[in-house]
């Protein structure tokens, strides 16, 4: 059983990030199809072959069902894969997680409008409006409530990582990327996302795939991304790699990368470049590096 997951731009599509996390973070089988946000054709036009879908993410099941709402994706995947932990198993935690995810799905419009997700930039000197501060205050209330009611000491909202955390991942990206003022507890939750390997993999892909779209930029001074600093790496043309097969695909090595004086091989430029973008974000490469 393999799903088709149709996504938008890695750097800018916040709902696509949610959909991708719902499959990637819970180890569900999928193949990805990417739409082009810089194409003259609209997203709906690019999705003509999977009508009535008109937004991303869209999930196509093996039977051909078309699911183009993230909350519906979460519920359907949880029904089909009860062992995956898409929602918490504890009734209190599960009900809390569903409530918060539904509020995220329908609300926080000022945060979305004022601070579009942009994985390629981080800003400083942002002065939030009163409406934006109200959105941030509401996030603090519901995040603190969820952790107090379920797992006061955990990094995630309702126990282990679940769909509710996938829904708030783009919110964490916005808070971090715009340097928005939040409480210490909210900041710790944002930091959990920035350090999460799946989140970092998505951001690494956003740095090497697709065009930079100026319509998502804002007129603020830029600064360094506030997440973990990756190890330095660069693409190289020659050298003797420490591996003969790509750590992601298992295919023969055709492209090379150097990091910390060591050379590793990959099966294509995309595998190499996404690792150059953030080599610590890729578990397969990390395992290869640590074992070599």
Describe it:
The protein is of the alpha+beta class. It folds into three domains: 3-80, Glutaredoxin (3-Layer(aba) Sandwich); 91-202, Glutathione S-transferase Yfyf (Class Pi), Chain A, domain 2 (Up-down Bundle), CATH 1.20.1050.10; 233-291, no CATH class. It contains eleven helices and nine strands. It has helices at residues 14-24, 43-46, 70-80, 91-106, 109-114, 130-149, 163-177, 184-195, 197-208, 269-277, 283-291, and strands at 3-7, 30-34, 58-60, 66-67, 122-124, 221-223, 234-236, 255-259, 262-266. The strands form three sheets. The chain has a four-stranded mixed β-sheet. The longest helix has 20 residues, at 130-149. The model has no long low-confidence stretch (mean pLDDT 96).
Label this structure with key terms.
43% helix; 292 residues; 3 domains; 9 strands; alpha+beta; 3-stranded antiparallel sheet; single chain; 4-stranded mixed sheet; Glutaredoxin; Glutathione S-transferase Yfyf (Class Pi), Chain A, domain 2
Largest sheet: 4 strands, mixed
CATH architecture descriptor of the largest domain:
Up-down Bundle
Query: Which stretches of 5+ consecutive residues score pLDDT under 50?
Result: none
State the total count of DSSP E strands: 9
Number of helices: 11
- Total separate domains: 3
Succession of helices and strands? EHEHEEHHHEHHHHEEEEHH
Derived from helix and strand composition plus strand pairing, the structural class reads alpha+beta
Name the CATH class of the largest domain. Mainly Alpha
Estimated share of beta-strand residues: 5-15%
**Mean pLDDT across all amino acids:** 96
What is the CA-atom radius of gyration, in angstroms?
A: 19 Å
Outline type: globular
**Strand sequence of the main sheet, in spatial order?**
2-1-3-4
Cα distance spanning the termini: 34 Å
Helix content: 40-55%
Protein name: Stringent starvation protein A
GO molecular function: glutathione transferase activity; maleylacetoacetate isomerase activity
GO biological process, one term: glutathione metabolic process
Organism: Roseovarius gaetbuli
């Amino acid at each position: 059983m393999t799903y088709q997951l149709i996504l938008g731009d890695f750097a800018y599509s916040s709902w696509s990030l949610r959909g991708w996390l719902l499959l990637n973070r819970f180890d569900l089988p999928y193949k990805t199809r990417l739409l082009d946000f810089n194409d003259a054709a609209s997203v709906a036009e690019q999705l003509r072959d999977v009508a009535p879908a008109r937004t991303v993410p869209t999930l196509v099941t093996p039977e051909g069902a078309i699911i183009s709402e993230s909350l519906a994706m979460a519920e359907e995947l949880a029904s089909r894969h009860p062992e995956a932990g898409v929602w918490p198993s504890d009734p209190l935690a599960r009900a809390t997680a569903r409530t918060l995810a539904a509020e995220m799905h329908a609300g926080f419009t000022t945060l979305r409008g004022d601070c579009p997700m942009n994985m390629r930039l981080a800003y400083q000197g942002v002065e939030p409006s009163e409406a934006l501060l109200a959105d941030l205050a509401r996030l603090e209330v519901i995040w603190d409530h969820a952790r107090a009611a379920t797992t006061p000491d955990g990094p995630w909202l309702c126990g282990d990582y679940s769909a509710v955390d996938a829904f708030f991942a783009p919110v964490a990206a916005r808070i971090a990327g715009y340097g928005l003022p939040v409480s210490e507890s909210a900041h710790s939750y944002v930091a959990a996302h920035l350090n999460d390997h799946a989140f970092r993999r998505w951001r690494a892909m956003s740095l090497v795939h697709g065009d930079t779209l100026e319509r998502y930029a804002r007129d603020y001074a830029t600064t360094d991304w506030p997440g973990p600093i990756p190890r330095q790496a660069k693409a190289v043309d020659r050298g003797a790699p420490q591996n003969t097969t790509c750590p992601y695909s298992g295919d023969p090595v055709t492209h090379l990368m150097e990091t910390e004086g060591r050379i590793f091989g990959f099966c294509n430029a995309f595998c190499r470049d996404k690792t150059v973008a953030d080599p610590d974000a890729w578990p397969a490469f990390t395992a290869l590096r640590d074992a070599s």
